[in-house]
Amino acid sequence: AVKRKWWKESVVYQIYPRSFMDTNGDGIGDLQGIISKLDYLRDLGVDVIWICPFYQSPNDDNGYDISDYYAVAEEFGTMEDLDQLLDEAHRRGIKVIADLVLNHTSDEHPWFIEARESQDSPKRDYYIWKKGKENNEPPTNWGSFFGGSAWEFDEQSEEYYLHIFNRKQPDLNWENPLLIEELHRMVRWWLDKGLDGFRIDAINHIVKMDGYPDAEAPAHEKIVSAHHFFSNLPKVHDHIQHLHREVFRHYDIMTVGEAANTGPEEALLYVGENRDELNMVFHFEHISMDSTNKGLEGWEKTPWQLSRLKEILNQWQTKLHAKGWNANFWSNHDQPRAVSRFGNDQEFRIESAKLLATLMFMLEGTPYIYQGEEIGMTNIKLDAIDDYRDSVTHQFYRLAQKEGWTEDRIMRAIHQSSRDNARTPMQWNDQPHGGFTTGTPWIQANPNASWINVESAAQDPHSILNYYKQLIALRKQHLVAVYGQYEPLLPEHASILAFTRTLGNEQLVVVMNFAAESAHLEIPEAVADKSMKLLLSNVQSATDETLLDGYLQPYESRVYFRE
Ligand code: TEU
Ligand code: CA
């Protein structure tokens, strides 16, 4: 028997508030903007919205650098707006989860301001301080995720502090029980306010390797990737279990942790059903398929292989079945647009966007939609570095210049990989700036907003948007889509990804062609019998019978059902 849970049966929609909807013309999305679109989200069929950080922040990293955990960022609105948002969402049957950033704060958080006052400041131990090496080099050779050293020298108190992200994001010291108590109190405060759970930022990085060793590297390499010294260390689990015991288990909530550099075995330690940690984690294995390099070169995408995607999905689907739970996604606010990256954003934009959605919704796990994905929003190519807003993109630009890359090469990499690809304004209609704002948006809207937008998609029965509605409805009607056991079909096929999902005597058969050419389809006889009913397809010619036809059109996807 399956263990039914609301968060397993939910569809989650991720909102990047800065880019979602602006209601006061200052060019920045706001909480009232989200409220104004709740009916849209309800009609889409969304059960949960995840809102990226809306806390007070100097915005070096758009809210992931928090200076007050208990305050709403002024440009987003007020605490009353937030209460209203919770209220109005709940009235529509939509739950709300928020980002929870526990690995670091802003350097403008009062804790850090106090901590850096002197080496014996009472708050000193809230962060991680070390002396440099004898030759004035940083304490270790660890590189930050965002480029450059993970250590910054603080002139005021004459020690280095650790920041595995930007230098304005000092890492919190989870060795300090007082800090932990403060964080627990804060999490409880938000749950008491009515939040329905959290997406927990960078949670697998909160513990750093004892003794702070250097990573092995050739002597001339002063700064190297050292992720293994601050990813998935055993004590992370003690801390999450502690948080669960003290806080989470007292509420009916959902939790999803962000866990880069995590494979399925490690993931089970976070999401295993008797672990009392998290409900699910985001891993990045499938969205790392197209960056085989590390460091700056990692910004240059390389072709991805369907065989690799199959391998990854097989592992995650099989290993977590009946033991944990998957979080399924193609994109988020840190990633390029899915249709540009894994589909085809030219001739087959509509078909391939639907195909990608079909996969995410038909796998076992909870599906996540990133805002704009439901209308097939694409990457953007801005001409000049000054048009980009993301601090990490600017950091990349500086470092690549220093390495001697040409402007062309740098901009090509930025066009492929910049986080701003996902952060252009949501495209609501064909008005200026996609109807996102009546003022000047904080970042340019994609010029294709004139024809890729919600209003026109809503009017077209064959739009990506209406296909998402059908997918969501299908998942609600058929429990097998949520809980069915996954089994791969046609494992060797070069362009077709196919699988079955089985629950009792119900079965889904999903077939998808990931190529821009039609593909030969031969379903094993045991699966392809005449009782199969077509539930959904992204081409209009598909019928019950066509499963036996022997081919799929470019980017065609179909879902069959039998009982
Ligand atoms: O992202 C975390 C993050 O960037 C890494 O875990 C990343 O996945 C890793 O570099 C592997 O490539 C979160 C937020 O989503 C992001 O927007 C923030 O900038 C970051 O944390 C810092 O808070
Ligand atoms: Ca605004």
UniProtKB/TrEMBL annotation:
A Pfam family matched in the record: Alpha-amylase
Superkingdom classification of source: Bacteria
InterPro entries: GH (IPR017853), GH13_cat_dom (IPR006047), Glyco_hydro_b (IPR013780), Malt_amylase-like_C (IPR032091), O16G_dom_2 (IPR045857)
SMART domains the record matches: Aamy
Keywords, ordered alphabetically: Glycosidase, Hydrolase
Keyword Hydrolase listed: yes
Domain Glycosyl hydrolase family 13 catalytic: 14-423
Family: Belongs to the glycosyl hydrolase 13 family.
Protein name: Alpha-glucosidase
